Each structure stands twice: as C-alpha cells, then as structure tokens.
Task: inverse folding
C-alpha cells in the first residue's frame, strides 16, 4: 500500500472512521503538516474504494456546498487488515536499522 | 442556489478553476469534491479573506490536475486489462470494440479494403505533408526570416529584374521602413592552396546591410564600409560550413588568409552554424561559402546597368504593404530625377520566402490538394458503406433501443467499428507514409530546394494523426449519429424494410454527388497535366541531347588576366579533351540551351534606329569549336563562324531562323548587318543561319539568337560540350583529368550529360504529373466503386417495395424508370457540381499547363460518362433485376 493511501486511511480512523473529503484533507494537513490537494485525496479514495478498503455513504447537502451532498467514507475491515499488514511489514523491515 | 448567488456577486472561485478541478477528479466523486472545495473555500473566505481563498482554490485546482491525468490513465489501462471492473463504461466500450472486431473479422475483405483505402489515403497525404513541410514550411536560414524582403525592379521588360548600383544607393539613403538594406551579387571563386583546387560559392554583399544579416558573426566581425574600397576582395566573412571544412574549425581562423582566384584574402569573420543569406537566384539552393565586400566602384557604375538583387529587413512592426508604399514613393522621386532611364520603372517588394518557394509551394499545394481529394473520396466511400450497414441494421438498432439502449450506446455501437477501421487505417497510413516518402524522394526533382530535409518527423506524424481523426469524423461519427436517430416505431413496424429517413437519404446522396464531383475535378486536372507533360516531353528543343557531356570552366587568377590567355586556355582544354578516345568533337558556349541567357535589342541596318523598348530582342552567346556539331544544331544557310570572324571590322556572326524571320522575313539574311549600339554602331555581319534552339526552357519558344565567335562578347567562362561515342557520363573522370592537366589550379565543375540537363527541366513537372495522375486514377476507381456500391445496395433494398408496385399494377418499365430517375438526378447533380469544381480549379491549373487550355473536354466527357454512368447503372441494374423476379418472390425478399 502506498504511503498516501496509508495517510488517507489513518486520517479516516482518526476522525472516528466516518469523515467526508474536506475533513480528511484537513486531518492530513493538520497532523502531517502536508498541504494536499482534493485531486490527490479523491483519486486515492477512489482507488481504495475499488480495492475494497473503504466504502462511502451519501450524506447531507448544505447551501454553502452549492447544494452538493457530502460523501462520508469509512475504512472497511479489508482496509484495516491491509493497513495493519503494511505497518507490520515496515516494522519488520525497520528492525535493527538506524539511519539517524 | 446560494453558490450561484455568491458567484454572481463576484465572490466565488473562478469558473475556470472550478472546471479544472471538476475535470481532475474521478467522475464518481465529482459532486462531492466540488462540494468539499466550495465549503472549504467559503470557510477560508471568512477566515483569510477572499483573495487568499481564491488563490488557495486556484492552487487546489492546479495541483489536482496531475492526479486527474494519472487517474485517467490508470483507469484506462485498468479498463483495457480488466474490462469487467469499474462503472461499466469501459466494459461497454470493450464489449463494443470486441464485437466490432468480430464483425469485421467475419468480413475480412471489406475490412481489408477499408483499412487499405484509408491507409493509402492517410499515408500519401502524410508523406506529401512531409515533403511540403521540409521544402516549403522550413524557414529561411536567417534570423526572423519573415521580416526579410526582396526588392526588384519592374519595367517595360516585365517583372522582375535586379537593381542597378546607383538605384540601390538611392533606396538605401531614402528608405524609411527597413532596419537594413543590402545589395548582393553572387560570385564564384576558385579556392587554391588547400589541397586540390575547388570552386566555392561566394557573394558580394554591401557592408551597409549588417542589420539585414540579423546576427553577429560567431567569430570576428561582419564586413565594414572601408572593405568596399578595393575592386577585388581582400577580406571575407566565411560560413560555418566553410570554417569547419576548409579552416578545420580553427578558433583562431580570424586573421588567417585563404587563396581565392590566386589572391590572398583575409578571413575577418565566421558566421554561426546554419546561417546563410539566401540567394534569390536558383531557388536559394546554392549555399554561400563566403561573403565578400561589394566593390564600391561597381555600385557607382551607371544607372542603366541592372544586376544586383536587393534584400532588406523590415523594421519591427512594419509590413510588406508599408515597404511597397515606401518604395513607390522613392521610385516616384527617382523617375523625376532620371526620366530617361527610369520613365517606366517601378519597384516591387516581395517576401523572400514567397519569392524562392512560391512556385514550389503552389505545386506542392496542388499535389497535397489532390491527395486530400483522394482521401475525401475514400472517406466518402467508407461513409457510404457504413450508412448502408447502418440502414441494414436499423431494425436491430430499434430493438436495442426499445430494450433500453440509450442513443449514446447506439452511437457507440456504430462508432466502434469506424474507430477500429480508422485506427487500423491510421497505423497502415503511417507505415505507408514512411515508404511513400522514400519513393517521393526518388521521384523528386533534384532541382527542388531542400530535398534532403524531406522525411517523416513529429509534425508529419501529428498530421497523420489529425488526418486519421478527420477521417473518423467524416465517415464514422456522422453516419453513426444519423443512424442512431432512427424512427423506432416505423423501423420496427416495417420490419426493417423502412425507407431511410429523409435526412439520411440526403446525406447518402450528398456523399455520392460529392464523389462524382471530386472525381471529375481530379480527373480533369490529371488529364491536363499529363497531356501538358507529354506535349512538353515531345517538344523539339532544337538540339540533340544524347551522347553529350557538358561541364563548366572559368579560368581565374593572375595567369588569366587577359582575354588572349583565357582563349589559349580554352583552346588547350578542347584540344586535350578531343584527344581522348571515344570523344568525337567538342565545343564551347557561354550559355547552354534551356538555361536562360542574356539578351538585348538590336538595330537592323537599313531600318530606323529603334526607340527604347522596341527592336528585335536578341539572345547573345559566344561559341567556339564544333559547338553546333556537338549539339546537332543544323546549319541552314551560309557557313559557321570562324575564329577569324572576330577580328574583322564588322565581325561575322551566325544567327538563328527566328532572328531572320523577324529582321529579314523576305530577304537573304547573308551579309546583312545589325548593331546593339545605336549611338556608335558596331556592325555585326550575318555569315550563317542555324536552326532555332529553346534557350529559356522547353515551355518558351526560341527567341531571336546570335552566336558570335569568341572572344566577341566573351565573359571569360564557358560550358564545354563534348560529343562522345557511348555513355557520356562514363567518360567524366577522364575528361576531368584532361582538363586538370592543362592547369591543376582551375578545376572544371558541373559535369552533367545534356540529357540529364533536359531531364531536370522536366523533373519537377514529371513529379507532380506522375503523382496527380496516380491520384486521379485511384480517385476515379474509388469513386466509381463507392458510387456503384452505395447506390446498388440501396436500390436492391427496395426490391420489396418495387415488388409491391409491380403487384399493384405498375409496369416493369415504369418501375425501372422510377429508380433510374433517381440515379440520373444524382449523376446530374454530381456532374454539375463537378463542372463548377473544374471551373474553380482552372485558375490553379492555368499556371501549370503547357500548350493547351485548363479544361480537357474529352476527358471531362469521359469522366462524366464513367462517374455519372456508374450512378445510373448502379440504379438500373438492381432495378431491372428486381422487376424480373415475380412480385411474390420480391415481396418475400429480406
């Protein structure tokens, strides 16, 4: 799993596993200090969804959104497994390595 | 909506950035993204103010773009490799494509025909585009070539001739529109002292034209005014090529001396790579090796001696029209100041590019146009076939539609096939274009500028891509859109026997009419060009070219300062060449036939002296040796010139029949006298009359011509002509050695057989005639096949309807007439439109035809009969077949 995919999944989990695009973007920006684009967030969400790692529900629409509905995403069990696997893999690889 | 309201007040993100963002995100999430972005934008407006928010939004959109692109590529590759994934669009396309491929696979002959037809069309146009681009669209080798113009003089002699030195100086001093203005005059030099002696091409240029040059030299300096003070050049600026080849790319070359015509000349500058001042003569084909200062004394010579083309660089922002107006103003002043020499003169300003490549460009455009017509006919053909297929599938489409297929889906179904065919056609086309460009290069006349640069490059491939796209649009999209617009109810009801909707019928008819018309235009053009070519080819130029070798000698340097020394050199050259085995005879002439010349008006003794612009215009050449014998030019009366003729008080000369016809139509010309000078006449006596020779090209009839024995009128250089037993090209090395044996520092140049020279005069014409003839043949074939195929198919589909008519009592003849009427109407429309096209094409053709008008009635009638007849026959044959079978079986026809 790619680094940014992990970031998106983790941001979702931090937001109580129920967040829409703007919140995910903000979460990554606040925690990782990275200014990310909606294009990046949503293409990643799209990919994760196709892999079955996340799913979405259509939420409410508000006037300030031009009447467009929010899409709330949540991490599916497969996504959690993949995330955990990625972490384990990294930990295994990191064991005994110092770079700084 | 609130958002809308905000945007109206000018507070929302710009539509452009919103659109960009919309494009950059996956379609499924588009609304959510835009909603999120707008929501955040609104918050940021509150928090940071509108400008900061807007700039944030812009950054968002720009930064999303890359993801959008990548996402799209990912989805595409994913869809092609795993078509079952995704939202189904890809799957549908995939299914459609596979279906189309299978359908086409079942009709391999049809598919192959279409692919090959399109491939040939795309390939030929692409290859021609490659030729066109290399030869015509390549810029001249000067900086900002668009600003470089050529100024020529126009007078009673026509347009256009070069300027005189004093004219140039007046223009230079009075002009207000040019950044720089320069007179030039090509001049060849013999380079010695660097291995074997060689001829290098140079040109005199005036130092005043530095701004015209447009770029500083790579090394050293450009020419200066004080360089112009000597008659023979003492300094030279050399081209990058010369610097590399002769001076070994020596960084210290500035200051080095080279030996030109036996004198030492100092190199003062080296121009950047690729740079040249294109010569307006000879199609800009001879690159200059060096630029030498224009001798001041030459510029100050008399106003009546015209010999220098003038180049200028338009000032920033100035135009050709402004330059013309400025030159008109200057010429008006000069005419007042020099009424005797300039009464009828004006100046014309040309774009140099147009001047050099205008002709070639026109011809290439014509060929490209012809190739385009073939491509159009090919597209029309395929479109007709597609329409026919769509018509046959009408009920199938109706059923699909009734079962819920959207119109887009139907279009896609029909379009996939076209897309596959066009894609394959495009690939074949690119392959064909690579082959064709090589073939064209072989066929291209060597006289065409920049033949070497011809090839298929990125631009040509882009062109191929564009052409393929155009073909898809023409034969794929339109029929697909129309076919999908089926009137479902009637299509289902009539069980597939519905006649076509009017708009579709009109479109089909339009394709047929257009094919007839385009075919006619091309066939007429081709017939005219082919006949012109054969007429010209069969033209008697007045001499026998076979078995003749020609080359040029031009003794230079202090050893050949006097005429006597040069004459001695020529005699020695001829003697050595004639001593070679297989050489029969040799002669020398100042200008070979078909290569232009110098002329002047003469005063015929016994007539009043001619006033300016009148009198017999006579070509002037000098001959020596057995020139007439070598070229087989017949002696009609009197005798040939002898060297002794040149020393008598009234030198004896030989004239041609055209001269006699104009000057002494009913008299014996022998012993008659004429003079070029009317003030202090130097009388020349006619001692013989020879046959007419075409001097200015095969198209131009022979002018009056005078041959004087050398050294009368001799400039010092000449063409040696040698008659050889066997192939003259084979003997070239021996002849070359023989000439070098006379003087190793005087290299002979330009070895060519006379046949080759004649051939190259025809080569350009042969090139476009062959191509257009080829295209016309293909076009005729394609058009006829297309017309027949489409019409007969649709008539055959009416079998059932015709059967009903017969059953209801219509006579067979009436039914056939009904069907025929339609075919005849199409034929008439096509022929009428074609004739309009032919008429429109005459303007282009007029400049290219020789010995005939731009319309060939016989070919036109034949073309009309073939194409129109095909349309009629295509209606008649299936109609006859339909009425011959019994109405009952006709009704059963599917």
Result:
């Amino acid at each position: 799993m790619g680094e940014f995919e992990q970031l998106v999944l983790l941001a979702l989990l931090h937001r109580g596993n129920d967040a829409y695009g703007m919140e995910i973007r903000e979460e990554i920006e606040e925690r990782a200090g990275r200014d990310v684009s909606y294009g990046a967030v949503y293409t990643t969400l799209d990919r994760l969804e196709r892999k079955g790692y996340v799913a979405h529900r259509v939420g409410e629409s508000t006037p300030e959104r031009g009447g467009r509905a929010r899409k709330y995403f949540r991490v599916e069990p497969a996504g959690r497994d993949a995330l955990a696997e990625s972490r384990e893999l990294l930990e295994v690889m990191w064991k005994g390595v110092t770079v700084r | 909506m609130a958002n809308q309201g905000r945007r109206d007040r000018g507070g929302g993100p710009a539509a452009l950035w919103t659109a960009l963002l919309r494009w950059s995100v996956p379609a499924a999430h588009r609304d959510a993204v835009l909603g999120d972005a707008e929501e955040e934008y609104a918050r940021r407006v509150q928090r940071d103010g509108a400008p900061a928010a807007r700039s944030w939004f812009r950054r968002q959109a720009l930064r999303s773009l890359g993801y959008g692109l990548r996402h799209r590529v990912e989805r595409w590759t994913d869809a092609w490799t795993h078509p079952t994934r995704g939202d189904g669009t890809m799957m549908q396309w995939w299914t459609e494509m596979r279906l189309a491929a299978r359908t086409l696979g079942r009709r391999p002959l049809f598919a192959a025909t279409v692919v090959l037809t399109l491939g040939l069309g795309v390939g030929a146009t692409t290859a021609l585009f490659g030729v066109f681009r290399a030869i015509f669209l390549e810029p001249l080798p000067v900086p900002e070539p668009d600003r470089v113009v050529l100024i020529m003089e126009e007078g009673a002699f026509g347009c256009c001739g070069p300027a005189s030195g004093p004219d140039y100086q007046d223009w230079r001093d009075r002009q207000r529109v040019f950044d720089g203005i320069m007179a030039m005059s090509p001049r060849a030099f013999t380079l010695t002292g660097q291995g074997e002696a060689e001829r290098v091409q140079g040109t005199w240029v005036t130092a005043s034209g530095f701004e015209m040059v447009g770029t500083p030299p790579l090394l050293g300096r450009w020419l200066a005014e004080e360089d112009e003070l000597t008659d023979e050049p003492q300094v030279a600026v050399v081209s990058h090529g010369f610097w590399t080849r002769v001076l070994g790319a020596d960084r210290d070359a500035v200051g080095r001396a080279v030996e030109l015509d036996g004198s030492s000349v100092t190199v003062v500058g080296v121009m950047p790579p690729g740079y040249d001042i294109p010569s307006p003569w000879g199609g800009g084909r001879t690159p200059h090796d060096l630029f030498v200062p224009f001798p001041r004394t030459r510029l100050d010579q008399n106003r009546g001696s015209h010999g220098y083309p003038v180049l200028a660089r338009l000032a920033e922002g100035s135009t050709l029209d402004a330059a013309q107006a400025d030159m008109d103003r200057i010429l008006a002043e000069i005419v007042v100041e020099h009424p005797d020499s300039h009464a009828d003169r004006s100046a014309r300003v040309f774009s140099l590019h147009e001047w050099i490549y205008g002709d070639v460009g026109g011809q290439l455009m014509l060929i490209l146009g012809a190739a385009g017509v073939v491509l159009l006919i090919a597209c029309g053909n395929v479109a007709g076939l597609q329409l026919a297929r769509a018509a046959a599938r009408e009920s199938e489409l109706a059923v699909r539609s009734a079962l819920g297929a959207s119109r887009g889906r139907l279009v896609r179904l029909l379009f996939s096939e076209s897309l596959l065919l066009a894609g394959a056609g495009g690939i074949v086309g690119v392959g064909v274009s690579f082959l064709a460009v090589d073939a064209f290069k072989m066929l291209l006349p060597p006289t065409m500028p920049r033949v070497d640069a011809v090839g298929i490059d990125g631009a040509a491939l882009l062109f191929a891509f564009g052409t393929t796209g155009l073909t898809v649009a023409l034969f794929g999209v339109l029929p697909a859109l129309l076919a999908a617009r089926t009137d479902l109810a009637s299509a289902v009801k009539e069980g597939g026997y519905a006649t076509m909707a009017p708009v579709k019928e009109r479109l089909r008819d339009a394709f047929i009419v257009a094919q007839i018309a385009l075919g006619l235009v091309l066939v007429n053009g081709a017939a005219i060009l082919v006949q012109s070519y054969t007429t010209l080819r069969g033209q008697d130029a007045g001499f026998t070219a076979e078995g003749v070798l020609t080359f040029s000698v031009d003794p230079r340097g202090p050893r050949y300062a006097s005429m006597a020394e040069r004459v001695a050199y020529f005699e020695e050259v001829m003697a050595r060449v004639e001593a070679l085995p297989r050489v029969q005879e040799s002669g020398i002439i100042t200008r070979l036939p078909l290569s232009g010349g110098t002329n002047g008006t003469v005063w015929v003794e016994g007539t009043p002296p001619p006033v300016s612009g009148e009198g017999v215009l006579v070509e002037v050449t000098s001959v020596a040796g057995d020139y007439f014998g070598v070229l087989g030019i017949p002696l009609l009366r009197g005798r040939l010139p002898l060297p002794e003729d040149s020393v008598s008080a009234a030198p004896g000369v030989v004239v041609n029949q055209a001269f006699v016809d104009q000057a002494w139509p009913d008299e014996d010309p022998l012993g008659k006298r004429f003079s070029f000078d009317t003030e202090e006449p130097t009388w020349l006596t006619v001692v013989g009359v020879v046959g007419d020779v075409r001097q200015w090209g095969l198209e131009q009839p022979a002018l009056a011509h005078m041959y004087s024995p050398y050294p009368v009128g001799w400039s010092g250089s000449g063409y040696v002509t040698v008659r050889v037993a066997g192939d003259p090209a084979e003997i070239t090395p021996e002849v070359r050695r023989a000439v070098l044996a006379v003087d190793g520092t005087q290299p002979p140049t330009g070895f060519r057989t006379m046949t080759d020279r004649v051939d190259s005069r025809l080569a350009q014409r042969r090139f476009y005639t062959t191509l257009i003839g080829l295209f016309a043949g293909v076009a005729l074939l394609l058009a006829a096949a297309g017309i027949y195929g489409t019409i007969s198919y649709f008539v055959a589909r009416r079998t059932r309807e015709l059967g009903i008519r017969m059953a209801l009592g219509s006579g067979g003849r009436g039914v056939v007439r009904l069907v025929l009427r339609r075919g005849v109407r199409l034929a008439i429309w096509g022929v009428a439109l074609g004739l309009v096209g032919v008429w429109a094409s005459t303007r282009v053709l007029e400049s290219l035809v020789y010995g005939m008008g731009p319309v060939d009635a016989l070919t036109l009638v034949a073309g009309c009969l073939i194409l129109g007849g095909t349309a009629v026959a295509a209606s008649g044959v299936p109609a006859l077949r339909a009425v011959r079978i019994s109405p009952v079986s006709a009704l059963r026809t599917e």
Remarks:
- The CA atoms of residues 4 and 44 of chain A lie 8 Å apart.
